[in-house]
């Protein structure tokens, strides 16, 4: 039960922060989802740092890892919004934005995880 509460609390904080970043960074004029992109890349970097610390000499407890990685990062990052935004790009025929957003999100997201884990070595 304690573990569920930790994931719940972390997820709530992550979701609220993602909402605020999206509110201030997503562009209604251009339709480019800068906020979602920023949240997903920052979340990728954070999970790399968190899991890197957890693996390094057991620096984080299982409960801390659940709160931060599973809860906070799980609530902060969002694949469903990413998928929806790509749907909007495709539906409007904006194949360039679709390709750039998708490729940049995957490549930079993976690099951010690796960089986060590299930083804690």
TrEMBL record:
Instruction: Quote the Pfam families the UniProt record gives.
Output: CRCB
Q: Which membrane topology describes this protein?
A: Multi-pass membrane protein
Q: Can you say where in the cell this protein is located? A: Cell membrane
Chain segments annotated as transmembrane: 34-54, 66-84, 96-120
The UniProt catalytic activity note for this protein reads:
fluoride(in) = fluoride(out)
The record ties this protein, via HAMAP family, to: FluC
Q: What is this protein called?
A: Fluoride-specific ion channel FluC
Its source organism is Flavivirga algicola
Instruction: Write the gene name.
Output: crcB
């Amino acid at each position: 039960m304690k573990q569920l509460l930790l994931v719940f609390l972390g997820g709530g904080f992550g979701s609220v922060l993602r909402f605020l970043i999206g509110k201030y960074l997503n562009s209604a004029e251009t339709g480019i989802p800068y906020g979602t992109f920023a949240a997903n890349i920052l979340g990728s970097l954070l999970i790399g740092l968190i899991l890197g610390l957890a693996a390094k000499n057991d620096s984080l407890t299982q409960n801390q890892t659940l709160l931060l990685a599973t809860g906070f990062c799980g609530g902060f990052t969002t694949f469903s919004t990413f998928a929806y935004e790509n749907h909007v790009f495709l539906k409007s025929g904006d194949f360039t934005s679709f390709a750039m957003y998708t490729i940049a999100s995957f490549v930079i997201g993976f690099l951010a995880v690796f960089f986060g884990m590299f930083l804690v070595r």
